[in-house]
């Protein structure tokens, strides 16, 4: 799962990015409105955190650009502007949530988890695929009720797959949502991570759809690594 943080205050942006990475997310940063408009229109994000008071181009203009370009990722506005008219303007431009400064970094994580869950069509706070479950409030995966120990990168992959459970996800799509912008995308490394996840969640839960990608299925319905689905 990949998030764009648009914030010109470097200390706040760094704190946000660190907190979100600790929560398992891949994080990219844009420090001004022009950069935010460009990267948000060209890169696929699962959510964006957007400040309004940006240099070069304000946040409302950035958000308007994104929505006109057809970008549908949920957007959480973070701003010092707490007037009702500012909130209305933000929602009219296409914001999904609004949080005024000062705020707790943990609240940003909770709100983003909820936005991502709802954007993927999941009403319950726990997303399930058979015996595998993701508690989106805590950010914890369980298998048959027991918590799984995952690295941040493993969590990211599994979170993306469970939000799209029983859908085929191509390798290119998956790589776009689990690697940060400055990191080289490596399909071989991705395949290694899939192998590690299979050992933790069960070989048959992550099916390889030959020539297409991967699909997370309830136990007993997958085909395992290296096999194909007609």
Automatic annotation (TrEMBL):
What the entry lists under Pfam families is as follows: Response_reg, Trans_reg_C
PROSITE patterns membership: OMPR_PHOB, RESPONSE_REGULATORY
Output the Gene3D superfamilies linked to this UniProt entry. 3.40.50.2300, 6.10.250.690, Winged helix-like DNA-binding domain superfamily/Winged helix DNA-binding domain
Q: Which domain of life is it from?
A: Bacteria
Q: Where is the Response regulatory domain?
A: 2-116
Q: Which residues carry this modification: 4-aspartylphosphate?
A: 51
What is the protein named? Two-component system OmpR family response regulator
Organism equals Stella humosa
């Amino acid at each position: 799962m990949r998030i764009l943080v648009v914030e010109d205050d470097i200390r706040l942006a760094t704190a946000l990015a660190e907190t979100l990475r600790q929560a398992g997310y891949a994080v990219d940063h844009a420090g001004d409105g022009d950069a935010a408009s460009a990267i948000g229109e060209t890169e696929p994000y699962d959510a964006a955190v957007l400040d309004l008071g940006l240099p070069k181009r304000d946040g409302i203009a950035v958000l308007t650009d994104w929505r006109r370009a057809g970008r549908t990722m949920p957007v959480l506005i973070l701003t010092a502007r707490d007037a009702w008219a500012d909130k209305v303007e933000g929602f009219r431009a296409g914001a999904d949530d609004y949080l005024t400064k000062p705020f707790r970094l943990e609240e940003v994580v909770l709100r983003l988890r909820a936005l991502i869950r709802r954007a993927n069509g999941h009403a319950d706070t726990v997303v399930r695929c058979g015996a595998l479950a993701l508690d989106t409030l805590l950010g914890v995966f369980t298998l048959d009720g027991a918590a799984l120990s995952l690295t941040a990168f493993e969590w990211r992959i599994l979170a993306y797959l469970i939000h799209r459970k029983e859908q085929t996800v191509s390798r290119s799509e998956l790589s776009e949502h689990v690697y940060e912008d400055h990191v080289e995308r490596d399909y071989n490394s991705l395949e290694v991570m899939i192998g590690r996840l299979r050992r933790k969640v069960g070989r048959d839960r992550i099916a390889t759809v030959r020539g297409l990608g991967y699909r997370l299925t309830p136990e007993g319905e997958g085909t395992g690594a290296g096999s194909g689905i007609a």
